[in-house]
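Minutes, project check-in
Item: structure for the 179-residue chain
Input as provided by the requester:
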Amino acid sequence: MKFYCKITRPGKTLVSYKSSVKELYFIQQGQIEVLNAEHDEINKQTPILFLPQYSYFGDYQILLNLKSNLVFKSMEAMVNDGSQDELSVKPIANDEIIHFMCIQKQDFLNICEFFPRTKENLIRQGTERRARFIVQKNKNSIRYKKKEAEVNNKRNNRADLSSEETHAEAVHMPSVHQI
């Protein structure tokens, strides 16, 4: 098994949209921001989630032989400059450089062949992680927000119609004295 150290500066894209993942990354120092695919109708600059120190990524793409549907980017150090709720990028210090321990795709797959039950567990966990990422990705897409708004409008329209019908029935109901 050949692990190696990879060091990068904040703001660097590690895995691009639709690219083949060539390494499994273990975050030793720093954070990763996960962004939606660049060609989807979304706000591309807003991360959908963050992977903190000691997290990993690239697993399900390698195990399931998938191209990445997300962008993984080393996170720039942010600092509050004292103004209300505003974050700004601060200069990079040596301790803010992102460190990874990585293993090449083929080495990882070779290890998995030696441990088939572990591979099955990793595939199951990777599939679950992928599903969570997709849900998070969809919640941040314009398409999802439009559909959600449509559903809410339909619900509101049905509620309005239902209350109008109830009001109409109450107005047209004959009273006990009329019968």
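Outcome recorded: The longest strand covers residues 23-29.
No further action items on this chain.
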